[in-house]
Amino acid sequence: MQARLFQLDAFAARRFTGNPAAVMLFETYPDDCTLQALAAENNLAETAFIVPHGGDFRIRWFTPIVEVPLCGHATLASAAVVLDRLEPAREMVMFHSASGPLTVRRSERGYVMDFPARRCAPAEAPVGLAAALGASVEETLWDGFNFVVRLAAAADVRRLAPNFAAIAIMPCAGVVVTAPGDGDYDCVSRYFAPAKGIPEDPVTGGAHCALTPYWAARLGKTDLRAFQASARGRELRCRLDGDRVELEGACVFFLEGVAQW
Fold it and tell me: Pairing between strand 139-142 and 187-193?
């Protein structure tokens, strides 16, 4: 078997920054074991698998060890593949996913994704969470998948050196750590998901589906400049529109070829 394979740096304006994602194009999906094996072989935080669906596309996302219900940066990368390589005359693409229809359109800065918002609710922190992070926690919330932890200051988020083994056994998909922004940013964050095979995700669209409504309510504004403070982290432009979140970013192509197995 073979499939076209692309690797891109998402939420990035230059190579070797942002979040690397693989995108593989099929006419029809192979079995799930094959998809998981391909994602493990690519060995990136996420591989997106897309297939044509009428005038749209279906999309699924896999980490090296598990399928996930939503992935922002690999959707952004998939949109770049469709709009810049497969059908460059298009201005928008819709992906049909486990999280519903997701549209991506061109913008001056790259692409704008339309995702479902995740509303956070107060939650009791699991035993050992603060110790695993090595930080004093101001607030703990639950977004339906992840614990969202607010720290006092951006500097606290930036200097975290968490215990990934301890986080991996927490009852959650991952832990989003956030604080009020510094400089020109409204908020900063980092995302740890070792249970999914991702110790730290460089730039996470899904996390900002929760962070955008959370900080919009705290700051009294719907347009936000967010920064994910990983080693490869970059800025995200976020906008809350009712029960939807718009996330804007660019992509840079790194690799294009054909995978064979």
Answer: unpaired
Q: Cα–Cα distances in Å, from 158 out to 34, 59, 249?
A: 37, 33, 21
The closest alpha carbon to 180, from 207, 222, 151, 220, belongs to 151
pLDDT computed for residue 188 by the predictor: 98
- One DSSP character per residue, 170-205 reads SSSSEEEEEEE--TT-SEEEEEEEGGGTEEEESS-H
Beta carbons within 8 Å of 153's beta carbon, 6+ residues apart: 179, 180, 182
- For residues 110 and 75, the answer to whether their CB atoms sit within 8 Å is no
What is the phi-psi region of residue 129: left when phi exceeds 0, alpha when psi lies from -120 to 50, beta otherwise? alpha
Query: With contact defined as beta carbons under 8 Å apart, do 69 and 98 qualify?
Result: yes
* pLDDT in the model for residue 45: 96
Mean pLDDT by 10 residues, the chain (261 residues): 98 96 98 98 98 97 98 98 98 98 97 98 97 98 98 98 98 98 97 97 97 98 98 96 98 98 97
Q: Is residue 46 among the annotated active site residues?
A: yes
| pLDDT at residue 247, as a whole number | 98
Q: How far apart are CA 130 and CA 192, in angstroms?
A: 13
Of 46, 200, 246, 248, catalytic:
46
Q: How far apart are CA 176 and CA 82, in angstroms?
A: 30
Question: Residue 81 contacts by C-beta under 8 Å, 6 or more apart in sequence?
Answer: 6, 8, 23, 25, 50
Containing H/E element for 77?
helix 72-81
d(CA 224, CA 185): 8
Distance of alpha carbon 125 from alpha carbon 159, whole angstroms: 21
